[in-house]
Design goal:
It is built from nine helices and seven strands. The chain has about 300 residues and is α/β, with parallel strands linked by helices. The protein has a single domain, classed as Glycoside hydrolase/deacetylase (TIM Barrel), CATH 3.20.20. Helix 1 runs parallel beside helix 2 and helix 1 packs parallel to helix 8. The N and C termini lie far apart (about 40 Å).
């Protein structure tokens, strides 16, 4: 499959709206199993895009594989998690602890940011270093998003959108959450703020987004339900966020998570997924295929 190509070639099925669907696999470079799984799902399945975690321990080992594959790639910007920053503690003092490490989880980061203990200029320096690491490989960065979605927080959102503008990255991710829990409601409000920032800056973003985290058997249930949910919105563009890997992957033990990595890989390479995408009239593509938001269309 060529990214941006209609799934049915030039003959789009009658009644199809030919809407853009981005299937993005996060965390490239985190482990060998994740990196190899993403490339395999791009070459053999429905994955059309990835977000690279350039601070991760396995990134350097798989950097050339990323370039050689040609997969459209964004920067998975990190200021949380198990991996160390690219810059020294002296360069980004408000982002790290005494051992030079990021907070492990987004909640700790948000608590620090909400009380003014995170300097946006430190974020800009570290995020630009991560973005530059990709570009130094010759990667044409298609979009910006973040590890654990910390770019939803307003001060981080501003840094990420400003970085997209100053460094010429055309698109950003807009994470979403379903349900009526306080967290889900807060996420949707923060997403609305990020959407307005991105639109005013002329950055592109999908109209809708869906993650398929921790899905139970059968292995394709999460992907199928995400496709059907996005279809029901009637959105002209959408992103499905996946977390997938091939096993065995012993390095993944260092990154505790609830994701069904191997099951999501199986779903991404299952021919039934491509058949369902075709049936619903989605056109597979990447963030590079999105149209920039019209700045004048969104008020302050």
């Amino acid at each position: 499959m060529t990214v941006g190509e209609s799934p049915a070639g030039d003959d789009v099925p009658a009644g199809s709206s030919n809407r853009l669907l981005i299937v993005n696999a996060d965390d490239y470079g985190m482990t060998s199993g994740i990196s190899n799984g993403i490339i395999a799902a791009f070459e053999r399945g429905v994955v059309t895009s990835t977000s690279a975690l350039t601070v991760a321990a396995a990134f350097d080992r798989h950097a050339q594989q990323l370039v050689d594959s040609g997969i459209p790639t964004g920067a998975h910007l990190a200021a949380v998690g198990e991996d160390r920053p690219l810059l020294s503690a002296r360069e980004i003092p408000t982002l790290v602890d005494r051992d030079g490490r990021f907070p492990l989880r987004w909640r700790e980061f948000v608590q620090r940011a909400a009380t003014g203990r995170v300097d946006p200029s430190d974020l800009t320096r570290e995020f630009r270093a991560q973005l530059t690491r990709l570009r130094d490989l010759g990667v044409n960065v298609t979009h910006l998003d973040s590890h654990q979605n910390i770019h939803l927080w307003p001060s981080v959102a501003r840094v990420v959108v400003d970085l997209a503008v100053t460094d010429g990255v055309g698109a950003v991710r807009l994470p979403t959450a379903r349900g009526s829990s306080p967290t889900a409601i807060a996420v949707r409000r923060l997403t609305g703020h990020l959407r307005r920032l991105a639109a005013r800056a002329g950055r592109a973003f999908p109209d809708e987004s869906s993650g398929i985290e921790g899905q139970p058997a059968p292995h394709d249930a999460g992907l199928r339900s995400s496709l059907d949910r996005l279809d029901a919105t009637g959105a002209a563009s959408a992103e499905i966020v996946m977390h997938l890997a091939v096993d065995p992957d012993p390095e993944r033990a260092a990154y505790p998570s609830r994701y069904a990595w191997a099951a999501q890989f199986a779903a991404a390479i299952d021919p039934a997924a491509r058949a369902r995408i075709d049936e619903l009239g989605f056109r597979l593509g990447s963030f590079a295929d999105l149209r920039p938001a019209a700045r004048t269309a969104v008020g302050r």
